[in-house]
UniProtKB/TrEMBL annotation, chain A:
The keyword Electron transport applies. Its cofactor is FAD. Pfam families: ETF, ETF_alpha. It comes from Fictibacillus macauensis ZFHKF-1. This is Electron transfer flavoprotein subunit alpha.
From TrEMBL, chain B:
GO terms for biological process: carboxylic acid catabolic process. This is Electron transfer flavoprotein subunit beta. Its cofactor is AMP. It comes from Fictibacillus macauensis ZFHKF-1. GO terms for molecular function: electron transfer activity. Gene3D superfamilies: HUPs. Belongs to the ETF beta-subunit/FixA family. It comes from the Bacteria. Residues 21-210 form the Electron transfer flavoprotein alpha/beta-subunit N-terminal domain. GO terms for cellular component: cytosol.
């Protein structure tokens, strides 16, 4: 049976996040031919609405209100409830991002529905959609279904491939003027730490440094390698705690959860909390001078050696072969 | 101030995971207080020491969870409540939040603290669900908390950015690593904890009907990830290793 599925489009620094396109792809599976309605909150979102149509949404609802230009739990929950009341969807998909993690459980509580968080893949078995998600820091996986009622899930970024972009797709973009009031938490200031450039959770290649990098300057060779590969730079908590880099680069249970095609870990021991954030990466390279380091147990390729010798050589070699091809 | 901490007993971080009869094997595991909940306990104790009041730690669990509650009491919490949900066959975050909400509706609270995520199921749902059911505001993944009367100033971690937030009590917050350094229970603390009140409530005591808190989701399979083939540790001259790695990434792994 086909289902109408709602997807929340997430905009960060004026750009739609890739996870919103991935959410549409997930919604398409759940919808089984039903309508996919994308929702955007805030003012001036109609261009983004078009993009969501190009990525597979059938229709877009713009929930407009000045108080929605910035995310707040209360504001977004109020807006979504009004859209849900109008659309009466049977499915709802959000990204498992800071925003999705903060608001989805609240929304689920209000709707008295189940919620499957941090989904990394989904499959159709007959009428039922089965969702897979990591548990125990990625040491195991579980398959879950929603027993009845709203099929509500949040999806981990960079795991479910988006549908192909088709700029000829069109659809209705309508505005719903929502009522938003009495916000109980007020954002006074946001200190932007996240470096500009590639969003770590969306990056296809990540070069990450740990305490082995030894200083702020120690990140330079990693940055040079990243530049050659068009990669993002990440870090372990060890490197952040030692003040070699900002916490916004942190990967792991406390930091960002990433699933790049290639993860190059330099001077990272591979603590379970770090693995929780990157062990789903498609290919993992470990560079560590300690052959016993646990990072080697999840690595596809490893070089035992001093990262200050290995990384510059790697940069040169990539330069050579990438120029040639 | 009436401070409450919701906490969960979880597998020890370093615990190996195995499967028995289609579920995670629990028998030989070591258990701990979920690490993110420890930050919540530490924060609550510090707040009580500054502002006065009482810290109550609450868990939905089984008899075994007494051990973790005692640890929280040994850290410095004043009272513990165990809501014994052993009789429930199927529970999920909907269940836990519903049970906690029933309990909290009978309590006077100013601040409820919890961890932002539990390291076993990793959903991060219970805190925000509870806040909604109690109709109070929430701030998740906090790294700094200041209370002045009923005014609250918070810093929260949003994917690496720092958001500065103002709100007021009553409130629910979830702790992120970086909020504080949890203390270890001291020996006198452990001795005192033995005499501190630990109340056990059955679902009946809370007038909870099993059907009303029945899980909305169902786990149909639990499995371990396919064992990764042992990685290739390269050898030979470093120059050659680097060349080989680049070539493998291009021709074998095809990621470049
Ligand atoms: C609740 C909680 C949450 C946490 N969350 C996270 C998280 O989100 N992310 C995270 O990363 N950690 C997290 N941690 C911390 C985690 O447990 C580890 O302490 C941390 O990951 C260690 O960082 P590291 O690997 O950089 O440092 P170390 O463990 O000190 O490892 C450094 C490595 O560098 C190698 N090395 C040194 N010099 C060189 C060199 N010249 N060349 C090559 N190799 C070299 C060493 O052999 C060693 O293996 C968390 C901990 C707790 C308790």
């Amino acid at each position: 049976m086909s289902k109408k599925v709602l997807v929340l489009g997430e905009v960060r620094d004026g750009e739609l996040r890739n996870v919103s396109y991935e959410a549409i792809a997930a919604a398409k599976e759940i919808a089984a031919g039903g309508e996919i309605v994308a929702v955007l909150c805030g003012e001036g979102m109609s261009n983004h609405g078009q993009t969501l149509l190009h990525y597979g949404a059938d229709r877009v609802v713009l929930a407009e209100h000045a108080l929605l230009n910035e995310y707040s739990t209360d504001g977004y929950v109020q807006a979504l409830l009004q859209v849900i009341d109008q659309e009466k969807p049977e499915g709802l998909v959000l990204g498992h991002t800071a925003l999705g993690k903060d608001m989805s459980p609240r929304l689920a509580a209000r709707l008295e529905s189940g919620l499957i968080s941090d989904v990394t893949s989904l499959e159709k078995v007959g009428e039922e959609v089965i969702f897979t998600r990591p548990i125990y820091s990625g040491k195991a996986f579980e398959k879950k279904v929603i027993q009845d009622g709203l099929i509500f899930v949040t999806i981990r970024p960079n795991n479910i491939p988006p549908l192909e972009l088709d700029e000829s797709r069109s659809g209705d973009v309508s505005t719903l003027s929502v009522d938003v009031k009495d916000l109980r938490t007020i954002i006074k200031d946001v200190v932007r730490k996240a470096s500009t450039g590639v969003d770590l959770s969306e990056a296809k290649i990540i070069v990450a440094g740990g305490r082995g990098v030894k200083s702020t300057d120690g990140f330079k060779p990693l940055q040079e390698l990243a530049d050659v590969l068009g990669a993002a730079v990440g870090a372990s908590r060890g490197a952040c705690d030692a003040d070699y880099c900002d916490y916004s680069l942190q990967i792991g249970q406390t930091g960002k959860v990433v699933t790049p095609d290639l993860y190059i870990a330099c001077g990272i021991s591979g603590a379970i909390q770090h693995l929780a954030g990157m062990s789903n990466s498609k290919v993992i390279v470990a560079i560590n001078k300690d052959p016993e380091a646990s990072i080697f147990s999840v690595a596809d390729y490893g070089i035992v050696g001093d990262l200050f010798d290995v990384v510059p050589l790697l940069t040169e070699e990539f330069k050579n072969v990438l120029v040639k091809s | 101030m009436n401070l409450f901490v919701i906490l969960k007993r979880t597998f020890d971080t370093e615990e190996k995971i195995s499967i028995a009869n289609g579920a995670i094997a629990h028998d030989s595991a070591e258990y701990i207080i979920n690490p993110y909940d420890e930050y919540a306990i530490e924060e609550a104790i510090t707040l009580r020491d500054t502002h006065g009041g009482e810290v109550t730690v609450v868990t939905v669990g089984t008899e075994e969870s007494e051990k973790e509650l005692r640890t929280a009491l040994a850290m410095g919490a004043d009272k513990a409540v165990l809501i014994d949900a052993e009789e429930l066959d199927h529970s999920d975050q909907f269940t836990t939040a519903a049970i906690l909400a029933t309990y909290f509706k009978e309590q006077e609270f100013d601040l409820i603290l919890g961890g932002n995520v539990a390291i076993d199921n990793g959903t991060g749902q219970v805190g925000p669900r509870l806040a909604e059911l109690l109709d109070i505001p929430q701030v998740t993944t906090i790294t700094k908390l200041e209370i002045n009367g009923t005014d609250v100033k918070i810093e929260r971690d949003v994917e690496g950015d720092v958001e500065k937030i103002e709100t007021s009590l009553p409130l629910l917050v979830t702790a992120q690593q970086g909020l504080n350094e949890p203390r270890y229970p001291s020996l006198p603390g452990i001795m005192k904890a033995k005499k501190k009140p630990l109340e056990t409530l059955e679902l009946d005591d809370l007038d909870i009907d099993e059907d009303d808190v029945e899980a909305k989701t169902k786990t149909i399979e639990v499995y371990l990830p396919a064992k990764k083939e042992a990685g290739k540790i390269l050898s030979g001259e470093l120059n050659d290793q680097v060349k080989e790695l680049v070539s493998l990434l291009r021709s074998e792994a095809k990621v470049i």
